[in-house]
Specification:
The complex is a heterodimer of chains A (208) and B (475). Chain A is α/β, with parallel strands linked by helices and 208 residues long. Chain A has two domains: 169 residues, Aconitase, domain 4; 34 residues. Chain A has eight helices and seven strands; from the N terminus they run E-H-H-E-H-E-H-E-H-E-E-E-H-H-H. In chain A, a hairpin with a 5-residue loop joins strand 6 and strand 7. The longest helix of chain A has 14 residues. Chain A is globular, with a radius of gyration of 20 Å. Chain B is an alpha/beta fold and 475 residues long. In chain B, 32% of the residues lie in helices and 17% in strands. Chain B contains 16 helices and 19 strands. In chain B, strand 4, helix 3 and strand 5 form a beta-alpha-beta unit. Chain B starts with 6 loop residues before the first helix and ends in a 16-residue tail after the last helix. Classes of the chains: A alpha/beta (208), B alpha/beta (475). The interface between A and B is large, with 32 and 39 residues. The complex binds iron/sulfur cluster (SF4).
Chain lengths: 208, 475
């Protein structure tokens, strides 16, 4: 995964509370065998009319938000089903940071596994950032993860908190798998000790 | 002196690669079962990151959820998306070199049926699969649980998981079951007692005379349904029945290794002084055949009872849910369960698709025919179960009764392959979930044991199997 250092790009305001993962990625897109390519379905029912045409009033269909890298949303973002297709779709669209007053647990955990930074801020600060983002002229934002700082177009900085473990995962560009793989020698040692202790577990000789 | 430990404690302790105080531990996984629906993105993730499957020899793949159960399925699967998922599994299994049971393999079947059958499931193992009913394998004293797609990828790449330990619950079932009562009825009683969230945060160990008396098939049914009570996993300590089941199976240890394994397995019991965080006690003699009436597995009642009255539910939230469930199920509060007309019967799934389940149903159906208008699907849990049933002539009994004799797969347990309920159709089903739409949009599911399903099939309505004496030639 690409390390998350600083991120600069348009921030799209989506001032709705309780946006659920069904809304982020509707169920008809779950039979896919890919996790890539889901960006075109993200927020499908909000983005497209029944006939397939774009809804011009939806923020991600307008300039400069078509290339948004940050989303500024309402409370309890990502609630509902645990489907990982929701963060997959956001990341594929290009969104690598979501700012909201609060997030659903599983969604936030899934985001870390997919290189997306979720920033929880007090509601008034989220509203202030959303107001700046709503004006295309001031919509560009820089997210500095090492400094834990959001820098808005007006030069104003806003600090945020993040769990150290999550910060490390994102900053190193490591998914959980990458982190575990750093313990490869522990795992190999465990395997070896066990095969010595419990040799009947060695299945290599029983393959078909 | 080491402190007294539960079976779960013992299996957990012997699998922690590293334990971080307070944080998640790194837990080693002995067996990873993979199926077509939750694995494609995990394999894709490996490819993108240029990673390998760390232990292909501990990884076994099979397609079961999407597969049709009709003859000739190997040649063509009609639904293009299902076909794509099956093709992806085929390509991934072969490309990454993991163990694989293709549709054409005589070892094919539902993932949770073939693990034990092939002797891959063994006491004391940690077993995972991207499927919640992985808890089935706990019947052998293995710690077995379902995981999501990211964790599937994590296990493929590292053969470990980062996780926190659960708490210990013990369900003790003393005494003896009455006639016509099965492990499925016990499972429904347990869920009815503790609720679908009652097991959240726990691993449940089943103990007691009635559990020891269950066959391996019955124990699998019980552990399979444990997930419907919200628990992480279910466990039964291994005993001579377990060992007899496993001995000689293709992947069970052989020769001197078997003796070594046996010595280790015999130690896999909870110490008598071990403490459990929660205790539930059930009297086996009080268990009668049960059915579900609602859209949650906790909505259960004895077949001799009726749909509960709404005022029985003190909690307003649950009352609203029950109202919605009754509307969906087309039932009225207070209505008798015995006598409720059904349209379809499904005998199969990883809950009740094993040989003993087919025998129990065949015993009721021998010499009888399906009631007018009833359609019945008999879907063996694996090809091996199918062959065994055919060698015993069970298929002839089902066919003579008018039921369809199918090939192995998940079939009508979930509405993902061609076997589905139509809107409004009522089904007596031996599967494990009665959620809205689970067996087909607007389909109505009543969970029952195989014997109860057979009784419904021949009478045309839900009924107490204890009133139907076996008929015909009882060879
Ligand atoms: S039979 Fe049903 S519960 Fe079992 S694995 Fe298949 S779909 Fe899941």
């Amino acid at each position: 995964m690409t390390p998350f250092n600083t991120l600069t790009g348009p921030a799209a305001p989506l001032p709705l509370a309780n946006v659920d993962t069904d809304a982020i990625m509707p169920k008809q897109f779950l039979k896919t065998i890919k996790r890539s390519g889901l960006g075109k379905f993200v927020f499908y029912d909000m983005r497209f009319q029944a006939g397939g045409g774009e809804r011009t009033d939806f923020v991600l269909n307008r300039k400069p938000y078509r290339r948004a890298t940050t989303l500024i949303a309402g409370a309890n973002f990502g609630c509902g089903s645990s489907r990982e297709h929701a963060p997959w779709g956001l990341a594929d669209f290009g969104i690598r940071c979501v700012i909201a007053p609060s997030f659903a647990d599983i969604f936030a955990a899934n985001c870390v596994k997919n290189g997306i930074l979720c920033i929880a801020l007090p509601a008034n600060e989220v509203e202030a950032l959303a107001a700046l983002a709503a004006n295309p002229a001031t919509s560009e934002m820089t997210i500095d993860l090492p400094l834990q700082l959001i820098i808005a177009a007006d030069g104003h900085g806003c600090r945020f908190e993040i769990e150290p473990e999550r910060k490390n995962l994102l900053a190193a560009g490591l998914d959980e798998i990458g982190v575990t793989l750093q313990q490869e020698s522990d795992i190999a040692r465990f395997e070896l000790a066990r095969v010595r202790r419990e040799p009947w577990r060695n299945t290599e000789d029983s393959r078909p | 002196m080491t402190h007294a430990r539960t079976l779960y404690d013992k299996v957990w302790d012997s699998h922690t690669v590293t334990a971080d105080d307070g944080g998640p531990a790194l837990v080693y996984i002995d067996l990873h079962l993979v199926h077509e629906v939750t694995s494609p993105q995990a394999f894709e993730g490996l490819r993108t990151a240029k990673r390998k499957v760390r232990r292909p020899d501990l990884t076994w793949a099979v397609a079961d959820h999407n597969v049709p159960t009709t003859d000739g399925r190997e040649g063509h699967v009609a639904d293009p998306e299902s076909r794509a998922q099956l093709a992806a599994l085929d390509e991934n299994a072969r490309g990454f070199g993991v163990g694989y049971f293709p549709l054409t393999d005589e070892r094919h079947g539902i993932v949770h049926v073939i693990g034990p059958e092939q002797g891959l499931t063994q006491p004391g193992k940690t077993i995972v699969c991207g499927d919640s009913h992985t808890s089935t394998h706990g019947a052998f004293g293995a710690l077995a649980f379902g995981i999501g797609t990211s964790d599937v990828e994590h296990v493929l790449a590292t053969q470990t998981l980062r996780m926190k330990k659960s708490r210990n619950m013990r369900v003790t079932v003393e005494g003896k079951f009455g006639p016509g009562v099965t492990a499925k009825d016990l499972a429904l009683v347990v869920i009815g007692r503790i609720g679908t969230a009652g097991g959240t945060g726990y691993v449940v160990e089943y103990q007691g005379e009635a559990v020891r008396a269950l066959s391996m098939e019955g124990r699998m049914t019980l552990c399979n349904m444990t997930i419907e009570a919200g628990a992480r996993a279910g466990l039964v300590a291994p005993d001579d029945k377990t060992f007899a089941y496993l001995q000689g199976r293709p992947h069970a240890p052989q020769g001197g290794r078997w003796t070594e394994a046996l010595a280790y397995w015999r130690g896999l019991v909870s110490d008598p002084a071990a403490q459990f965080d929660r205790e539930v006690v059930i009297d086996a003699a009080s268990v009668v055949p049960h059915v579900t009436w609602g859209t949650s597995p906790e909505d259960v009642a004895p077949i001799t009872a009726h749909v509960p009255m709404l005022d029985k539910f003190a909690d307003a939230g649950k009352r609203t849910q029950v109202e919605r469930a009754l509307a969906y199920m087309g039932l009225g509060a207070g209505q008798d369960l015995d006598g409720l007309r059904i349209d379809k019967v499904f005998l199969g799934s990883c809950t009740n698709g094993r040989i003993e389940d087919l025998r129990a149903a065949a015993e009721i159906m021998r010499g009888r025919t399906l009631a007018q208008g009833v359609v019945m699907l008999v879907v063996p849990g694996s090809d091996a179960v199918r062959r065994q049933a055919e060698s015993e002539g069970l298929h002839d009994i089902f066919r003579a009764a008018g039921a369809e004799w199918r090939k192995s797969g998940c079939s009508m347990c979930l509405a993902m392959n061609p076997d589905v309920l139509g809107p409004g159709e009522r089904c007596a089903s031996t599967s494990n979930r009665n959620f809205e739409g689970r067996q087909g949009r607007d389909g109505r599911t009543h969970l029952v044991s195989p014997a109860m399903a057979a009784a419904a099939a021949v009478t045309g309505h839900l009924t107490d199997v204890r009133r139907l004496a076996p008929q015909g030639d009882a060879r």
